[in-house]
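Customer ticket, subject: "Can you confirm the structure for peptidylprolyl isomerase?"

Message body: Hello, I'm evaluating your service for our small team and ran a test protein. I'd like someone to confirm that this is what the system normally returns, since I don't have a reference to compare against.
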Amino acid sequence: MKKLTVALLTLVVATSSAASAKVLAEVNGKKITDKDLNAAIDSLPPQYHTLKNNPTFRKRMLENLVKEELLYQEALKEGLENDPAFKRRLEQIKKRLLVQYLLSKHVKPPKVEVTKKEAKAFYEKNKKMFTDATGKQVPFSAVEPFIMENLKRQKEQEALNRAVENYVKNLEAHAKVKIYGSSGSAK
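Agent reply: Thanks for trying us out. I re-ran your input and got the following:
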């Protein structure tokens, strides 16, 4: 009886997971599911996430996944994954991704604020930037949200750069680092 119950539970779990992953396409036997499509859309910049349920967008994304799978299979068929140049490039990409991941774990984006006073000062200093097609001055109130958002992004990037520098300095303080100049002697 226990074996029958385990077998039925296994069948139910297998059926439910297969049902939740609807096959949308198949390329030389490799299935592309709705989960694959959703993951591809989720990996895009946030502005594309609103199109997740748009049928035309989904169709184009699926077509792209099919093309990518075809190309991937062809690259494997040609043995390109064993090419020394590819392996070097893969190591470079892996290194960059690991660094980005490390920083995302240990360096949190700082919270910054932009005051209306700062935005107004930027506007006054750069008035020539804020004219319409006829050369007429655009009022501060019309561009204030734009200025506030851009100043905020700029401040966030500057603060993040400082946080990364501090994190790296902390790592350097606890590491043995030697830098050799072009002459080969340590600095």
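A couple of notes from the result: Residues 4-18 have pLDDT under 50 and may be disordered. The first strand starts at residue 23 and ends at 27. Feel free to reply with more questions.
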